[in-house]
Amino acid sequence: MVYGWAGKTLQVDLSTGKTSTAPWDRDGQRFLGGRGGNAWLFWKHTRVGMGPYDPDAPVVFGSGALAGTGLIGASRMEVTVVSAAKTETHSIGNVGMGGHWAPELKYAGYDNIVVKGRAEKPVYLYVNNDEVEVRDASGVWGKGTFETETLLREEVGDEDAQVASIGPAGENLAVQATVEHGYRSGTPVGSPVGYKRLKAVVVRGTGPVNVHDPDAVLELNRQLVKTVKDTKKRMGEAIPRGEGKDAYLQGFLVGDAGVVGNYESHAWRDRPDVKKAYEDNYIEEYFVKNVGCFGCPFPCQPLYEVPGEGVSVWRCYPTYWPWKLWMTDLASAFKATRMMSDLGMDNKEVATAVSWLMQLYNEGHLDSRDLDGVSFERGNPEALSETARKIAYREGFGDALADGPLALAKKLGKKAEDTLYHNQGLTLRTFEFRAEPGTALGEVISARGNSLRATTYHVVLWDKPASEGYAGVDPRERDASYEWSRKMFGTEKAIMATEYEGKPAALIYEMNGAAVADSLGYCTTMIRPGRTGAPGSQFGDTSYQFASDRLKAATGVDVDEATLFTYGERVCNLERAIVVRDGRTRTMETLPDFFFKTPIPDGAQAGRVLDRGLFEKMKDEYYALRGWDPETGMQREPTLSKLGLADVAKELRKMKKLAPERAEKEA
Predict the structure, then answer these.
(1) Which of 2, 5, 334, 656 could form a disulfide with 28 if both were Cys (CB 3.0 to 4.6 A apart)?
(2) What is the pLDDT of residues 171-203, one digit of tens each?
(3) Is the pLDDT of residue 532 over 60?
(4) Is the pLDDT of residue 502 over 60?
(5) Could you tell me how far CA 560 lies from the centroid of its own chain?
(6) b/e 80-102 (16+ beta carbons within 10 angstroms → b)
(7) What pTM, to 2 d.p., does this model score?
(8) Structural domains of the chain in order of their starting residue, each with its CATH number
(9) 3-state SS of the chain: helix, strand, coil percent to 5?
(10) Per-residue CA distances from 475 to 264, 533, 539 (Å)
């Protein structure tokens, strides 16, 4: 009997309408599921240079290994595509989402779905246990994701059916398009789905998921509830909490580096009108309740209903990206968030493009005539909403922008290209890399890039003193954190944000851990619930034994923490193999000169730049610790074989994409 996993992959060919199944139990033992399982299926079903709009390019939907097992916090799904938002060296695009979809897929009897081919007309996939149908979607094509979800549930006659869908942005192949599920999305993966004319995947399951030790599952859940309650009580003493305020309080009061993505100024956020916009917390009166994922007693997504606008989840994005746009009107931020979710778009991708256009407009390089009559004065809400709409429907300047910011930059001229800071064609996240070298290293080395899950350097302790509204770091927790860092990485500097020493080892620890969480389908706030740093820091509990215990209870696979991390190492190496196969080299893994040459202008970290020499030294150390070739960034055959990826190494060797023999002998 298979425990934990459903044991099957559903395969769908939209060109023919045919479906089939393949066994998953052995692959599950190697890659768990979720992100790792999707990466393996992606590797098997793609070839060198395959584009996102190739009918044979797969769209992979996967559930985490622990989804549907009854374990609290294990409800995440993963969608993986050949990404249109990236260059060939960022060929894999993926996104993880919580909600109810992943457990429902398990209850239907499948661990994952591989969709290939292209339908002649708009369709949706309906999976109801053993019943699998490719159905006509003409009735919902062109509609937003909110209405699509409602109409498809009505059509299948089951309000418990779970829907993952694209909006108009995905239908029109905008690279900013997302796959949405219950207000949950992020990371543009929607346009390859739209190319297949696949509007949605609707899943309903009523079967069981067998678990190895049900009593252990219940006991582990009881322990988790106590741990989370104790942690929330401790955290609540440091920063007063209130719906809509947390991101402001943590970012403004704790994050000294200024995680705003506004590289021209950080001090502007201390203006009275900016603080007032967040402190007044205008939207608190419209708060309805917190909504959560499947089987989770700790709902964390605040749901709001605003008269005249509608209902939407106020995710972290609308509290973070207004900083990039100099916006103080949070009513407009709510409206734009809801609009982009309905259109099926990545909030932060659109906001990043608008921030860039606002800079060009402010400096006099563009005017409204270049932008269809829209004013891009800083703080103008219309600039954001109109840009989103124009991208989704490919109108005016939005037509070029829908192919990515680089496409529009080339039309606008050299100044636009020079001020569009990106990593191999991929927009950058809202972190101040000049003050966070570990985060910068993760940004350039990650296979996917622009990923909070996969590239953020989480083990960072901002040791900021107390100030108004902030109690400061508990000295006991700070000292315990530094002691752990010395034990793990040989230096307490490894968890100091602005330092370089120890960062490669700490980054590998974090990236492997993120791969484990994403493959198990575990919420990162649950996989390490006992935070030991201050709220606003990214320092967490020091053990993943928590996850090992849950894997054993659900599947019977008995591994210790170190062995569990081998799974994460395997997933990270498989993703590396994908991008190296498609052309990635060491020389590509860097940031624009801006971050090395232009100092932070103001604020707590004024004057800082990335040190290029130290940055390259970090890369040397990172590659060496991974068992890769520091000269080329390519993987070595012994490294892959040790991780059970000899079959991957064999394919790379055929393509001459393994590290040279010379480098292997020197190592």
Answers:
(1) 5
(2) 999 999 999 998 777 788 999 999 999 999 999
(3) no
(4) yes
(5) 27
(6) bbbbbbbbbbbbbbbbbbbbbbb
(7) 0.94
(8) 8-204 (3.60.9.10), 260-427 (1.10.569.10)
(9) 45, 15, 40
(10) 34, 10, 14
